[in-house]
C-alpha cells in the first residue's frame, strides 16, 4: 500500500508523529555530509498552483543535496490543468486521475501545493484534489499545503519548538490570529500546527476573534489527541489573554471559514470577510504583547509575514524571533518527509 503525506497531522498517531519528529532532528544533524545519496536517482514531480518561496526552494535544494531530481510542472500554464471530473474543460484540463497515473509511471513521488483561488475558495476542495491524486497514484503524494493542512510547515514548526524549548510536554503555545490587509490566507497552518503541538504534549491556547474559529473536525481531532498525550486546549477571544505566560507565540492571519463559498462557482463573501478583518485591526503582536509571554518566549511565523499588520518589525527582528530558524527547518523537515516516504531506512 502506497504511503502518502496528505494529512499526517490528522491521521498519524501521536506516538508515530513524535518518532518522526525525533528522526527528522537526527537526520538534520547528519545533513549534508552523511545524508548524501539518500534519494539518489529518485525523481519527484512538483506542481505549484500557488506562489512559493520556502516550499519550492527548500524541497528542490534538499532533493538535489540528497541525490534526487526535481521536475517542476506549472499546472496553470505549463501543462493541461489537472481537474476533477466535474470541472473539466475540453483541451484546457486533464483529469487528475490521468495526470497522477502518468506521472507515477515516470517518477517516484508527486508533490502538490493548492489552496484558495485555484479551488474556487471552496473549503476542502483543494484537499479533495490531493486525495484524487493519491487515489490514482502508484507513488507517494506529498501535500505541500492545501486549504486544510500544511504538514510540511507543521513538522518544521515542531522541530523549531523542540530545538528552542527542549521537551515539549507541558510547554505552553499560543496560536493567535492576527490582522492582515489581505484575507487570502487558508487555515492550513494553524490547523496543522494545533494537531502537531498537542501530539507533542503542548498546552495550546487558540486566540482569535469569534469569526475565525477553526474547522470543527480539526478541533475534535485535536481534543482526542490531547486526551492521549495529556495536553490541554483552550480557546480565548482576547489576544492578550492568549499570549500571557506562553512559552511560544505563533501569531499569523487566516481567513474566516464562514465567509467562504460552499459550492464551486459561488463567490467569496468578500465584503463580509473584509469587514470582519477590519473590525480586528488591533490584533497585532508588538513588543508589549510579547512582554506578556514568559521570559525567553519566542515568536513564530511561517512567512511571508505582513510586517506592521500581523506583527511589528521590532518583534520579527528582535531577540524573541524564531521565524528564520523556522524557515531554515523547512529544508530539514522536508528532507525527512522525502526520506520517510522513499527511503525510510535512511531515517533510522
Give a short overview.
This protein is of the alpha/beta class and 348 residues long. The chain has helices at 8-11, 14-30, 54-65, 96-106, 125-136, 151-165, 188-199, 216-229, 239-243, 270-278, 287-290, 313-316, 323-342; strands at residues 43-48, 69-73, 81-83, 93-95, 109-113, 141-143, 172-177, 203-207, 233-236, 248-252, 298-300.
Characterization of the model:
The chain has 348 residues and is of the alpha/beta class. It has two domains: 8-149 and 330-346, Rossmann fold, CATH 3.40.50; 153-327, Aspartate/ornithine carbamoyltransferase (Rossmann fold, 3-Layer(aba) Sandwich). 40% of the residues lie in helices and 14% in strands. A five-stranded parallel beta sheet has the order 9-8-7-10-11. Helix 4 (96-106) crosses helix 5 (125-136). The longest helix is centred in the C-terminal third of the chain and has 20 residues, at 323-342. The protein is globular and about 55 Å long. The two termini are 21 Å apart.
Amino acid at each position: 500500500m502506497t504511503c502518502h503525506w496528505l494529512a499526517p497531522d490528522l491521521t498519524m498517531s501521536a506516538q508515530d508523529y513524535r518518532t518522526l519528529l525525533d528522526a527528522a532532528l537526527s537526520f538534520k544533524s547528519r545533513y549534508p555530509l552523511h545524508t548524501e545519496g539518500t534519494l539518489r536517482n529518485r525523481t519527484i514531480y512538483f506542481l505549484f498552483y500557488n506562489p512559493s518561496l520556502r516550499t519550492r526552494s527548500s524541497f528542490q535544494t534538499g532533493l538535489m543535496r540528497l541525490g534526487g531530481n526535481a521536475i517542476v510542472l506549472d499546472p496553470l500554464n505549463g501543462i493541461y490543468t489537472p481537474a476533477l471530473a466535474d470541472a473539466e474543460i475540453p483541451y484546457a484540463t486533464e483529469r487528475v486521475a490521468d495526470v497522477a497515473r502518468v506521472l507515477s509511471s515516470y517518477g517516484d513521488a508527486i508533490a502538490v501545493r493548492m489552496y484558495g483561488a485555484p479551488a474556487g475558495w471552496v473549503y476542502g476542495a483543494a484537499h479533495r484534489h490531493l486525495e484524487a491524486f493519491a487515489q490514482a497514484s502508484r507513488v507517494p503524494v506529498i501535500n505541500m499545503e492545501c486549504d486544510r493542512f500544511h504538514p510540511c510547515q507543521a513538522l518544521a514548526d515542531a522541530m523549531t519548538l523542540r530545538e528552542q524549548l527542549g521537551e515539549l510536554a507541558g510547554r505552553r503555545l499560543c496560536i493567535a490570529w492576527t490582522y492582515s490587509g489581505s484575507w487570502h490566507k487558508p487555515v492550513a497552518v494553524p490547523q496543522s500546527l494545533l494537531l502537531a503541538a498537542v501530539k507533542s504534549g503542548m498546552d495550546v491556547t487558540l486566540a482569535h476573534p469569534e469569526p475565525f474559529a477553526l474547522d470543527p473536525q480539526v478541533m475534535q481531532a485535536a481534543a482526542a489527541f490531547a486526551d492521549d498525550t495529556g495536553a490541554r486546549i483552550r480557546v480565548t477571544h482576547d489576544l492578550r489573554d492568549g499570549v500571557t505566560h506562553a512559552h511560544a507565540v505563533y501569531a499569523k492571519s487566516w481567513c474566516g471559514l464562514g465567509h467562504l463559498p460552499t459550492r464551486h462557482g459561488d463567490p467569496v463573501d468578500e465584503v463580509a470577510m473584509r469587514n470582519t478583518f477590519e473590525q480586528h485591526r488591533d490584533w497585532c503582536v508588538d513588543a508589549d504583547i510579547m512582554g506578556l509571554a514568559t521570559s525567553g518566549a519566542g515568536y513564530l511565523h511561517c512567512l511571508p509575514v505582513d510586517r506592521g499588520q500581523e506583527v511589528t518589525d521590532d518583534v520579527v527582528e528582535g531577540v524573541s524571533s524564531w521565524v528564520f530558524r523556522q524557515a531554515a527547518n523547512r529544508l530539514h523537515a522536508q528532507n525527512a518527509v522525502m526520506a520517510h516516504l522513499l527511503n525510510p531506512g535512511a531515517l533510522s
